[in-house]
Every structure is written in structure tokens, then in C-alpha cells.
């Protein structure tokens, strides 16, 4: 049976590019969704087998829709990650010149990444928000008079897909901008341990614990575990109530990770395990001295001998 | 001379409501801006004297545009805060019924807060992003055919301002949703110390320090200081490079706060001080034992006597 | 076969009093030794089955001879503890008056505890060190001219045993002085877990670990474990090289203690487990929230479910 | 006027050797005392100007008498330190052979350091405690029949002083044994800052503070200060009540030390400052990154600018 991969569509989004770069997906079917939520809901309902969604951008930060969708509802886990360089073009219908552009359509995250260029080159253009960068291109290509903008900021592939002309290339304010995408699945067999793994969790604090975040971070530090991302998200209960979305180096099958997770499970109101998976860059985890599996095993054997068990 | 207060407009936004609830502003002039950036730029250029901008929402989390605009450029400081309960209505032009609604316009943050209601009551309506909730209402009121949506999600005041009819009230998925706004000014005289103060900083880590975030948080904990918000934001340099926007209890004139700030200044690559200001709720800071000004003064006097200075 | 209990003798020492108050020993044979070392050596050679030795005095601190003897050589473990109130008398042969006392014999630790009294009442008396307080009494009773002192500072029972007259009672400078003794045995079956237990360890740091003692103490604090005694002892390798003798609340069979011991085992050069045993005062350990066995078991079950094992 | 230096006598003790190696004392008068207490009392009464006393031995650990005498009573401060290699000889009167030795006199600390040698070479010799190693030699030289021992363990100089014959040289069980002595004075001008300094303090915990020792050590670690000695001493109030004698690198005039001391002053029940003084070995303190005086000054200037003061 064909594996079905959902992604944040429509065609031409950076998310689709992420999915295309996931080799294993080439055998499967690719299904676009209009939102992260709808893709993950379909995954939960088993209508698809996996979903590629953005989680973190080097300029705009965490992707709230993804973080929140993973944080509640039936459990899902990350099984892989893909980093995609983000390059924006300014695209328009055939015949439109840069001087003709009075309004620009794109997704708000993309807009945030090209404002410097816009200030310098099209200071009088107004901004029209769209649902995605690809939707901005599509709207331009297929739209009638009323879509309200003369040019779109989108990925080069989206401009090409829709037969638009590129008025300016590589207009992002930050060279080297990257978005990190994750491939999400229903819990099942864990991805194999490679020594170059990451684990993602969502931590909810107890109200009655002083120290709070510091206490949580110590669970990592006493086991020599390095965090690679920490994002606070509102629990939505009241202003100032936050939970923490965290990526750290290591696999749930690593001893130090297992002990840290148990520590977090004890001190947190809830720990949501969101998967262990190989890093895209393949960088082997630099295991801190005395925190390797052999160190933990030796300690456990010693404890057993003390206990006479 | 009249004080000029900027705000994230247009009229009818929740930000305007925040400014209206700031009593001191009633004597001044209120100037709408199209974005947080443009308001803060005007403030930096001294075209206005203060700006009210959103910083944190109980459902959607930190407001990236504000956090990032405060984190770079000429220094600005927060001088006050206002919390505004967020209530959404579904509004349309006279004569439109709920059954006629095929597309809904609103700001993406508002859409995120009413999706549950929409799924239950208008499951087939498509979403059209707009620049603000007030802009959605305005577009509906003044727009021609092409604006692309039949109803707007906005504040009750925006619906009233634009003569729209309310099709449904209080449609937010979370009762009690609140947005926190801050009044920003150029650095000048510090707001007076009230004993019920908050301080806001942006912390940039050094690359060469192990321990990272834990080391920063310890600077607070060893002085008994309580954090009320921590938000990570990308430095935009590369994926995985983050800085931290933090609110904590206390005023820069408090001894314990001064010492913590000096500690942070030493261990961070950069500390951006973003102001000390009275809490809106007036809740007096519960100063941890042995961290009051008198404790610090006594310790300093003792040290002086040891040093013979 | 009769159980043989060694103790730091001769008869009449506080150590003998400790052994006498250990009810289980009443059925056994009591064997005095001239030093802690010789008692523990006899225990290691299986010539005796247990040894009562002093470990800590409320005025003089840790008993180095005991701490060092436990820290090296074949492993021994503490299986019980006894606290004995320390009361000193000034005793002399029949007919000797206080005014006749020119020199006082006693153990140096006892002398340290009565110096205030001596300064006030016998300021001109010189001090003659003896091997134990009981030895001072014995020397006085049986000695010839040459023993060199006219009165002894000893336990009331030692004065009585040797037919000495008490010239002054309760002459300790600190009311409520107490010595804590431990009953030591060869490793065997662990004393039962009572919920009111202590565990004793000796920790040797690695040279190559920064942070040092702080890192060790964190292994306790992250599991909510309370230390009741910390004593540094030279490793004897070079000046400034120390190891740490530590008592803490809990039993090696407690989950939180097991995990803390494993953590210490990993980060220390060596951990010497010196036993888990019931507290004499029977005070139930106040287990910190979220550190009980049930909390650890639940966390372990959860981890197993994540790992699918 | 001649400076008067007290020391723990009599002549021939290792303490006298320490004083002799303190060059500045060569111009002054040297006054022996029978105990550490009596020397420090004379210093407090201004009968002498300084006192050399032992504080730490590489085999036997802290010298309780010194630690306790510094911890209470009128304030005294350490102004210098001297390390003396400890070498023991077995000495006897002319004509006595090793085979004739049935009893050996020496100070209990010395006895602890030669027991291995004794076990191997004079296993049947009994131990007779004396007030000091020099006193053992003196007793042997001048004593009548009754002194009770045939040989003394003492410093080579003491044997020579008293015309004794050396039966065995260098009989310490640990090669390289060292005792550290400190020169104590009444508080006055601080020793100059050399960059190779130590500071000594005695810390008394508050009963009402959880965390205890960990909280104290963090005051050092957050300022990058390295401890070189930690010794717990009973407060003498009740069993299990301890205070901590601590040496650490740096001078009270160093910024990081000043801030750490202020932190300790706040969280401790009492901090007894026992002096800042140059290390004997002249090893420059390896100041941790970002904890130098310049770092603290820059941070203070920055805070002042924030405060507008």
C-alpha cells in the first residue's frame, strides 16, 4: 500500500520542498493541506501516514501552529527533520514591471523576512497578507482583479509553477535563512538510534513548584545533556502560564536521556514525549564525560551489587 | 505641548483599547500606525512620544514583531503595561445572515483563537488573512466586491465603529483570553519604584559559555528573583541561535535587581535593558527572605568595614 | 554461636556505654580494643562480628580515626547508630581534694570539652594526655607515682568502676553534649528499610572535574535528599586533596537514593558505600514531594512505555 | 619596638619551624605557648603581635583547635601562610637500641602518621600520648623514670635540640606529608593584594534555609571562585549542627570576592571573615573568564547608566 505523506500546501510551499527532499517519500503519495492543524488532524485520523510541517525558522522563530498542534490532542511523534534554505523572489504576472507594484501579497512570516528589501526598493508598496507564500503566487496567477496585489513574495519554485516572472531574486534580509521541518507520525516503532539524534518534548510545570524552569533545566544539566531549542508557549489557561517546547541531543534509548526523562516526569505536571529521531546534519552527539551508556550501566551494576539484587 | 501616543492601528484594534485605558493618554493625541515596526520607528525618530504595542497574548504567546523591534535599533524602554481582555465577535454588513458566510477575514492571531468556534458553526468557511482585526472590519465596511470575505472576526468596538452587524458574540475558544500591551518610550527618567514593578530585558548568550540558559537563570535565582515571562527569539544569525526576552519582578533600582543585572551583564554577550515599570495589577512583589534592599545594604556596609574603605 | 562485639575500650569508655545501650548486644560477648583501627582490623579478619566506634561528637566534630579506617581497607558497613549523652566528672583517688590537683589526665577530645571549667576552677592545673578517658581513670587507680596526674576527667561509670571519688560532676562546657557511635559490620544482608533510615558514603572526587563539591551535592538536591553530616577528610595524597564523608537521609533501597548513588558513582572517582541503617531517633524521613518510590516507579513505567520495552 | 611572635611550642615543634621560615619574624621575638588557645588568647590581649599556628595537615586534616579558636572570641585574621614538610624521626636517649623500645611517646597526630611504620618495625610498642612532638622529645631528655616511654617520634630538630639519638629517620607513612601553618594577627591593615591570594571565612548557616550548604557554595560558583579547603566544624549547639571553615582563591579587595562575601553575608546567619593573604606558593589565581575586576567595573558602570546615577 502506498504511504501517504501530508504537507502544508498548496504546491510550491517550502514545506513541499522539505517533503521532496525526504527521499523515502518519493515512493509515496503527497497530499497538500491548507493548515498544519488540518494535516495533523488527518494524521490522527489515519487518513495519512505522516505529515511534514515547519517547526522553526532561523529568522521568525518557532512555528506556533505546529508547536501547539503537537502539544495537545492524540499523541504524535517526530520521526525525522529536514532543514530547507529559504530563498524568496518577488514575482509578478508577465508584463508587470517593478515600478508597477503597488501592493505585495505573501504570508506574514515571509513578509517579516523581506521588509528590509521592501523598504529600500518598494517603500510605498502596501502589504496584503495571504495564507501561504505559494497561495500568494497562485492568487496572482489565477486571480481576478480583486485579489488586491500586483506581486507576490514566494519561493522560486512557486513562481515557476505558476508561470510568473521573477522581478527580483534572493530578496530575504538575512542571507542563510533556514526553516526546519519535521516529519510527524503516529507513535509506533522508534526511529533507530544513530548516535546523532535529537529528542523533542513539551514540558508543563506544576503550579506548586518553586524554582520552575531552573528545576527543569537542571534535569538536563546533571546528565550532561545539551538543549538545542527552547520555546515557551502559553498553556492558554491564563496570561503568564507557559509550557516549554524543548529539543535536546540524544535518543530516548540513551541511558542519560532515559534518566533525564524520568526526572522530568516526576517534577513536571506533564511531559509530552514528541519523539527521538536522527539529526539531518548527522552530527554525532558529543557525549559529556561520564554520561555515556557504559557509565550508566556500570553505575547500575554497582547499585545492584550494593542492594544484593 | 501635546503628548503624542502612537498605537498599532487602525482605530478599533485591541491596541487602541489598551491605549484608551491608559488614563494619562487622554490628554494627548492618539496616532495609529500600520505596524509595530512603523510605530516604534516613529518613536525612535521622536515623531511621537510613546507607543502602545502588544507584547504577549494568553493564547497566542509572545508577539514576535514587538519583541524583535525592541531587541534591535536605538534603545527604547517599557514604561507601563496594560492587560486587555480579548473578546471577538463575528460581524457582517447589514442583511448578511450567518448562512451566507463563505469566507471570514481577520488577523491570523485572531483566527487562531476562534478556530474551534468556526469548526463548529461555519465549518465550510474559508479563511482570508488581514492586517489586523480592525482592518478586517474596515475592509468589510468600505470594500468593494473584491475584498474576498463576507464576515469579519474583530473586537466589538470595531464592529460598532464600522456600522457592522454582530452575527455572533464572544466567539473566542478560550474564555478569559487576555492580551498584554506595553507602553514604550525613549529612555529617560525611570518610572518611579512602587514595590509592584516589573523589569524587561533581552539577553544574548556568549557562544563560548557552556551551561548557557541555566547560567543566566541562576543569576536570577541566587538573588531570589521571580521570572514572569521567558520567550526565546532567534538572533537571526543562524538556525538554533536564540536570545531570550525575559520579564521579572522588581525594579532596576532594587538592590537585588541591580546585582542580578550586573551578573547578567558580565556573563552575557549583550544585555538589553528594556525598562522597569509598575505592574498593571499592582501586586506587590513578594520579596524573598534575605533579598531586600536592607539585606543588601547591610552586606555592603559589612564589606566596606572589612575592606577598611 | 555467640556474637562478638568489639568496642573502643577499655571498660568505662563512652563507647562501651554505647554498646551497652544496643540491646541486641546483650546476648553477645563484648571485646575491648585499644584503638578504632585495631577493632576494625579485627572485624575485617572476622575475629569479631561487629564493632562499636565513635564517629561524631557534638563539640569536637568528626572522629578522624573512624572516618579514615572506614575509608580504606576491605569494605565495612554501618548497620546501626547510637547517640550517647556525654557527661564528664573530675575524679581522683580517695583523699585527694580539688586543691591538691596540679595535673589532670584525660583524652584530648575530653580535655577540649572541659577547658572552660578548668580555666575557671583549676586554672593552674597542667594537662596530661591519655589514650582514653577510661585509661585516665585506670591510670589513676592503678598507677604508681609516675603516671603524672592527680585527677582524671572521665565518664561517671569509669570513676565508679575504678573506685575513684568524684570531685566535680557534669563539668563539660556544653550542656547537652552528645557523641554518636556507629555499629560496624562486614557487608552482608542490608538492615531492613524502616522509613527512618540513614545512609553513609565516602566520596572521592575526580581531579578532572570542575565544579567539584557542588556537582556532588547536586546529585542529592535534584532528588530531594537531605544531608545530615558532611565531613571533609584528606585523601593523604597531597595537601589540599580531600574526600567527603557524608550521611544522608534514606536507605539504599529507596528509589531516590539508588538514583543519587548511581549519579555519584558516575561523577566520582570512587564512591565507598558505608551502609544504610535505621536512625536511632526513629524520625521518619520527610520525603520531598515527587521523590517517593511511587513517583520513581511511575516515571520508570512511563519511560518503558515510551521505549516500547 | 620588637614585634612579638607567638607559636605553638615548645621549641622544636613543627610550628616553630614554620615561624623560623617566616623571614619577617627574624627581627622579632619568638614566644612559645602550650596550646593554640593560649597563643591566640595572648594575641587577643595584645601580649603578642602575631601567632603562628597549624591549620591543616595533608594526612590528618584540619586542626580543630585552631579552627575553633578562630571561629569564636574577638576577631582575628590570617595574614600569611607557611607550608612545612613533615618528617618524623624515632629518637631515644644515648645507648637505647631499637630493640629496647617498649613504649613510644608523641602527639596523637604524629602517631597517626607513623602507625604503619610502627606496625612493621615495633609492633609490640605501646603508645603514650604527649602534648606535642617536641614535648615527647623533651620528656625523654629530661624526664625521670616515670615519663613512661623509651623513644619519641618528633621532628629531627627536636631530637637534635635535646641531644637524642636518632634510631630511624623519615618514618612517616606518607611521603610528602605537609602541614600548613597560618600567621594570625588582630584585624588591621589588610595584606596587600598580590593576585596570588587566599581568603578564609567561617560560615554559619541559618536554620530556616532549605538547600543549606549548596546555597552557600553557589555564592562562590556563580562568581567563578575556586575553593581550596572546606572543613565542617560543629557549632557545639547540638549534634548535627555544623558550620563551615572555607579557604578560597582571591582577595577581599577583588570585586568577585566582594560580591560573593556580600551574598554569603545575606544568606548566612553569620560570616566570620578570617583574612585575605598571599599564598605561600605564589601561584597566581586563574581568574575565571568574565569574573575579573574589569568585568565587574564595566557591569557596575553600565548599571549606573541605567539608573541614571
UniProtKB/TrEMBL annotation, chains A, B, C, D:
The ACT domain extends over 201-278
Task: Write the record's keywords in alphabetical order, separated by commas.
Answer: Amino-acid biosynthesis, Aromatic amino acid biosynthesis, Lyase, Phenylalanine biosynthesis
Known EC number(s)? 4.2.1.51
Q: Where is this site: Essential for prephenate dehydratase activity?
A: 179
Catalysed conversion reaction: prephenate + H(+) = 3-phenylpyruvate + CO2 + H2O
Question: GO MF terms on file?
Answer: prephenate dehydratase activity
Query: From which domain of life does this come?
Result: Bacteria
GO CC terms in record: cytoplasm
InterPro entries found in the cross-reference section: ACT-like_dom_sf (IPR045865), ACT_dom (IPR002912), Chor_mutase/pphenate_deHydtase (IPR008242), Preph_deHydtase (IPR001086), Preph_deHydtase_CS (IPR018528)
Which PROSITE patterns does its entry note? Answer: ACT, PREPHENATE_DEHYDR_2, PREPHENATE_DEHYDR_3
Sorted alphabetically, which SUPFAM superfamilies does this protein's record hold?
ACT-like, Periplasmic binding protein-like II
Biological processes, Gene Ontology terms: L-phenylalanine biosynthetic process
- Which pathway is this protein assigned to? Amino-acid biosynthesis; L-phenylalanine biosynthesis; phenylpyruvate from prephenate: step 1/1
The record's listing under Pfam families reads: PDT
Chain ranges of the Prephenate dehydratase domain? 4-186
Under which name does UniProt file this protein? Prephenate dehydratase
Species of origin reads: Knoellia aerolata DSM 18566
Give the lineage: Bacteria, Bacillati, Actinomycetota, Actinomycetes, Micrococcales
Amino acid at each position: 500500500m502506498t504511504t501517504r505523506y501530508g504537507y502544508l500546501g498548496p504546491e510550491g510551499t517550502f514545506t513541499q520542498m522539505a517533503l521532496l527532499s525526504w527521499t523515502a517519500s518519493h515512493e509515496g503519495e503527497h497530499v497538500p493541506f491548507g493548515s498544519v492543524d488540518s494535516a495533523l488532524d488527518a494524521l490522527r485520523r489515519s487518513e495519512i501516514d505522516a505529515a511534514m510541517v515547519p517547526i522553526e525558522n532561523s529568522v521568525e522563530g518557532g512555528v506556533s501552529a505546529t508547536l501547539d498542534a503537537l502539544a495537545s490532542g492524540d499523541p504524535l511523534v517526530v520521526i525525522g527533520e529536514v532543514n530547507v534554505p529559504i530563498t524568496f523572489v518577488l514575482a509578478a504576472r508577465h508584463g508587470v514591471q517593478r515600478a508597477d507594484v503597488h501592493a505585495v501579497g505573501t504570508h506574514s512570516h515571509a513578509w517579516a523576512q523581506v521588509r528590509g528589501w521592501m523598504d529600500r526598493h518598494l517603500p510605498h508598496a502596501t502589504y496584503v497578507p495571504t495564507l501561504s507564500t505559494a497561495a500568494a503566487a497562485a492568487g496572482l496567477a489565477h486571480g481576478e482583479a480583486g485579489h488586491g496585489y500586483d506581486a507576490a513574495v514566494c519561493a522560486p519554485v512557486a513562481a515557476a509553477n505558476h508561470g510568473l516572472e521573477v522581478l527580483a531574486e534572493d530578496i530575504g534580509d538575512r542571507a542563510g535563512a533556514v526553516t526546519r521541518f519535521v516529519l510527524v507520525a503516529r507513535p509506533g516503532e522508534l526511529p533507530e538510534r544513530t548516535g546523532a539524534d535529537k529528542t523533542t518534548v513539551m514540558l508543563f510545570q506544576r503550579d506548586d513548584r518553586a524554582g520552575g524552569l531552573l528545576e527543569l533545566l537542571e534535569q538536563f544539566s546533571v546528565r550532561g545533556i545539551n538543549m538545542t531549542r527552547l520555546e515557551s508557549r502559553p498553556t492558554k489557561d491564563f496570561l503568564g502560564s507557559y509550557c516549554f517546547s524543548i529539543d535536546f541531543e540524544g535518543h530516548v534509548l540513551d541511558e542519560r536521556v532515559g534518566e533525564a526523562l524520568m526526572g522530568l516526569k516526576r517534577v513536571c505536571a506533564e511531559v509530552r514525549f514528541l519523539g527521538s529521531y536522527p539529526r539531518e546534519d548527522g552530527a554525532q552527539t558529543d557525549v559529556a564525560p561520564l554520561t555515556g551508556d557504559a557509565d550508566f550501566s556500570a553505575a547500575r551494576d554497582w547499585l545492584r551489587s550494593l542492594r544484593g539484587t
